[in-house]
Amino acid sequence: MIWDRRNECLGREEIDQLQLERLQSALNRVYRNVSFYKKRFDRLGILPDEIQTLQDLAQFPLTLKEDLRESYPYGMFALPLREVVRIHSSSGVTGKPTVTGYTKNDLHHWSQLTARVLSAGGVTKDDVVQITFKYGLFTGAFGLHQGAELIGASVIPMSTGNTRKQVVIMQDYKTTALISTPSYALLLARHMEKEKIDPKSLSLKLGLFGAEPCPESMRREIEERLFITATDNYGVSEVMGPGVSAECEQRNGLHLNEDHFIPEIIDPVTGDVLPEGSKGELVFTAVQREAMPLIRYRTRDMTTLRKERCGCGRTLIRMDKIYGRSDDMLIIGGVNVFPSQIESVLMEIEGVEPHYQLVVDREENLDTLTIMVELGEQTFSDEVKKLQGLEKKISKNIKEFLGVSAKVQLVEPKTIARSEGKAKRVIDNRKY
Ligand code: DLL
Fold this sequence. Notes:
This protein has helices at about 5-10, 10-35, 35-45, 65-70, 105-120, 140-150, 165-170, 180-195, 215-225, 340-345, 375-380, 385-400; strands at about 85-90, 100, 130, 155, 175-180, 205-210, 230-235, 240-245, 255, 260-265, 280-285, 295-305, 320, 325, 330, 335, 350-365, 365-375, 405-410, 425-430. It is α/β, with parallel strands linked by helices. Strands 3, 4, 5, 6, 7, 8, 9, 10, 11, 12, 13 and 14 form a twelve-stranded mixed beta sheet that branches. It has a four-stranded mixed beta sheet with strand order 19-18-17-20. A two-stranded antiparallel ribbon has the order 1-2. The protein starts with a helix and ends with a strand. Bound molecules: 5'-O-[hydroxy(phenylacetyl)phosphoryl]adenosine. 5'-O-[hydroxy(phenylacetyl)phosphoryl]adenosine binds near residues 233, 235 and 322. 5'-O-[hydroxy(phenylacetyl)phosphoryl]adenosine (DLL) binds near residues 232, 233 and 325.
């Protein structure tokens, strides 16, 4: 089912015209109202009015996550706070998170966009939707919740954790659609297997998965173990949250809501715009946002855009599943983590040296993180009990500050290889 046939099935010329008009308006709004953009454009001598074609967008500078951090919390807002009715933030607690704000109109658009995502994934008003994303600053739960209500589905705002209860609710409330990270879906499957609960005895039909990569092998495993149809959906909190793009029943790429987000693919090294069909880094200009329009925001996600028509009837451009990242951000069980954040947690702990290595693996399709932490000579000679206490403390702090579970392995002084150049902090053994 196509939620918004008028906007999801526009002709290419209509899309281009709509994007150009909205782009001109967004550039003018940020130039007038966001000092960060005014200063930048003035420095480069470019005026928003000069934009004549969509290709002219490439003259404008890229916006980085760091720019948002430096404008923390409200520096990127294009409207006074009294117009902002909702505030969310990106995951990750240490360091400055990035903040994103929504006006009433932004929330209205957001619900429309997540309703598109949910409809593409097969959700209708007859579904009972269980949302297992965390309700809070993270955009995932509220964003998809609003869209599901707009469709008229029955929404269960379960939030994260308590896997046993999640399954009981699923049984009792007759959940038909699961909204989660793909890795959590596998955790649920594993739990049911252990508890000898037959997934076929549930009412579950659909799984809409996002917030982290879901490679084909993982999709297949989820579908086989839970007896559901699984679709992938993608979003970035700074740009909006979920609602940016999603697979339809054809499952050959994610339809990108181009009437709200103008996508470009750039070479992550040179920043040059690459031709259609190239693999590169995804950049978005959020033209419809009122509270926080973003110009050429670098997502650091690697993909390819394709304009060929899809069998479902939607004309929106499609992006391939995310291939990986152009920076060192890791997504572990749906939580975004930068090695630098782990480092700052470690450095707060006495006796720990600034030498560590992160080993990321996938065991039975679930992400695992092991942090190898090097000890100073003094600490290393401590008794076993003390060392065990230290291991626990590191693990607890990582969970508390970053929201990820990690196994901590303490290692002898000088065992982690030193590097002359950039230290190799991460060994990612997962295959996408
Ligand atoms: O993860 C928004 C979201 C919530 C999307 C729920 C879908 C469902 P952030 O926390 O800002 O926002 O993380 C954004 O997560 O740049 C990608 O690297 C990654 N990501 C999100 N969805 C996918 C996906 C939300 N379907 C970052 N496939 C992005 C691969 C994804 N990576």
